[in-house]
Amino acid sequence: MATTSCASISMQAPVSVSARQKPVSSFSFGKTNLSFNLHHRKPARLAISCAATQETVEKVSKIVKKQLSLADDKQVTAETKFTDLGADSLDTVEIVMGLEEEFGITMAEERAQKIATVEQAAELIEELVKEKGA
Question: What range defines the domain where residue 95 resides?
Answer without folding.
Answer: 54-133
